[in-house]
Amino acid sequence: MREKAVEIVIASGKGGVGKSLIASTIATALRKDFRIIVGDCDADTPNQKIYFSKYIYDEEKRGIKASEKAKVNAEKCINCKKCAVCPYGAISFNGHAIIKEVLCEGCGLCKIVCPTKAITLEEVENAEMIKYETELGIKVISAQLKPGSSGSGKIVDEVKKACKSEAGMRKADLIIYDSAAGIGCPVISSIKNTDYAILVVEPTPSSINDMKRVNEVIKQFGIKTGCIINNCDYNAEMKQEIIQYCTDKGIELLDEIPHDKRFIKAITELEPAIIYDKTLEKYFRKSIGKVKELLNI
């Protein structure tokens, strides 16, 4: 029996290059032989649910407290205005300090400088976690930040904890994390402590540049990495640039996926691409084979 699930992160740096498509496709391709959890690690704009919507039969929601806001005890406040040092401009005064919750980042500086301990930090519910059960046997876990809330990196940590807990209960073999775009806190949280990273890139200048940036983040964690070139027929010269970069950096080149309108049609049908059209699986042979290798098959 496997001691723990293998954890794979799908990352790109740039949004819209196919991370969610690839995460859902790999999960769907392996679902008959393995128990799989998919974690949507984009707390600002989670969309992994879209790829499984046709097969979702149950969902469970709960609030997440992964952020803090400053609170003022008006009776203790002496209106000294030392807390006006707030770097976010979240404090105003009307006889005593007043916190503007929308602007407060919970950094705690005001609490530190307050001479009367009139300011405290209190946990606030800043997101909602949703767990989806699907008829495919794949569990999808995501979270959505509330409007005006911060702390997406901490929310991703909560999603990963939930995925690992679910994997333990289900004796799951594999967790696939669908990372947010960029190189910020949610991406770092998605990447850390995983077993393998798959970079997704298109042969365009912005995608290549962002792929290189996120690879530098991955390197800091010492994680082995593969690369999938999506829409590989966009630009032959830039495709070769990607291949050369992967060779130079020791990144394993996995699949090259051409532009195919059937992927878009699958999304409009709210189902995984290779269920919409089984023949699309041929584009993912190397990446599926790599994941099987990681699962010791």
Features:
single chain; 297 residues; alpha/beta; Rossmann fold; Alpha-Beta Plaits; nine-stranded mixed β-sheet; two-stranded antiparallel sheet; 9 helices; 13 strands
Strand content: 25-35%
The number of distinct β-strands equals: 13
**Overall number of domains:** 2
CATH fold description of the largest domain: Rossmann fold
Q: Per CATH, which architecture of the largest domain?
A: 3-Layer(aba) Sandwich
Q: Could you state the CATH homologous superfamily of the largest domain?
A: P-loop containing nucleotide triphosphate hydrolases
Shape: elongated
Distance separating the two termini: 14 Å
Task: Describe, in plain words, how this protein is organized in 3D.
The chain has two domains: 6-64 and 127-294, P-loop containing nucleotide triphosphate hydrolases (Rossmann fold, 3-Layer(aba) Sandwich), CATH 3.40.50; 67-124, 2-Layer Sandwich (Alpha-Beta Plaits). Helices cover 32% and strands 26% of the residues. The protein has nine helices and 13 strands. It has helices at residues 19-30, 109-113, 152-170, 185-191, 205-220, 236-249, 261-268, 273-276, 285-294; strands at residues 6-11, 36-41, 56-64, 67-72, 91-93, 97-99, 119-124, 127-134, 139-145, 174-179, 196-201, 225-230, 252-257. Strands 3-8-9-2-10-1-11-12-13 form a nine-stranded mixed beta sheet, with helices on both faces. A two-stranded antiparallel ribbon has the order 4-7. Strand 8 and strand 9 form a beta hairpin. The longest helix has 19 residues, at 152-170. The chain starts with 5 loop residues before the first strand and ends with a helix. The model has no long low-confidence stretch (mean pLDDT 93).
